[in-house]
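Whether sequence alone determines local backbone shape is best considered at the level of individual chains. When preparing material for the folding task, we compiled for one chain both its residues and its backbone structure tokens. The sequence in question and its structure tokens are set out directly beneath this paragraph.
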Amino acid sequence: MTTAQNNNKSAQNYSEKFSMDRNLALEAARVTEAAALAASKTIGRGDEKAADAAAVDAMREALNSLSIRGRVVIGEGERDEAPMLYIGEEVGNGDGPEVDIALDPLEGTTITAQGGQNALAVMAMSDKDGFLNAPDVYMEKIAVGPSVPKDVLDLDAPIGDILQKVAKYKKANVEDLMVCVLERERHNKIIQDIRAAGARINLIQDGDVSAIISTTEEESGLDLYVGSGGAPEGVLAAAALQCVGGHMLGRLTFRNDDERARADKWGIKDYNKIYTTDELARPDNVMFAATGVTWGTMLPGVRRFAGGAVTHTIVMRSKSGTVRRITAEHNFNRKIGFDAMDG
């Protein structure tokens, strides 16, 4: 084969892979739509297990319809703890590219069961070994949007000092800033310190993936996210930040020896390591999709009506920097298969 033929073949392979990645990103939207539609039937019914099970079942079936050789690296827990979408589970129909998958079929099970805000169905895909294999433990997190340099972030600095720097780059006063924090007893001290610094606070019940992504959107009004939450959700948030910009730091925290043993199992050697966005999710080829389940800061929730529903989804790719917002109307009288969620 001549040099010209080799060059043409390489160009063709690149074009095919680019097209495949682009199409796969749109297929990811169908996966999160299926999970959100299924979960939406349980909104406000007070049954967290039913809400989670509905989302998991629908997302798993949708994933298995894709032409991928997928491996779940961030999922519903380990195999013995989660009968579906556990870490290490293989999904897809066995054709197509080899991909690693981080997912949360229902980020906000309590939110959904109570009819609250900011519940999402979330999934990210990357090339093999593209995500940190984060154990299901807590992670300290701090995140900002792209208008603030990453060196402003520090998990150990006083929050007042960080707010001063954020205000400088935002060309605002500290009093103008809005900081998002999960409303948990463990955050009482940082909440006090934020208030002492003069900034405003948006307390949320759940949904820190949505909150972290919202720091990248000016219209959200959120300037900084800080606090501890699930490590898997930290990886998902980092995947989204790789697509839209923004910066994040994360450090795993452990409550007991069992959690440390879980980290050992997944190859975590340094318990005190602070992970950057690039270490949580490699930037070169990440696809992220999220569909609103309940209404929230980032996305409207599912609106159901007789015979159908409307969903709102965001799909992003790090390679192209493309962000798509998809409003889809689903006709349950015509659809068959995993997305016919009319039960």
About this structure: Confidence is low (pLDDT under 50) at residues 7-20. Residues 225 and 311 are 26 Å apart (CA to CA). The two ends are 57 Å apart (CA to CA).
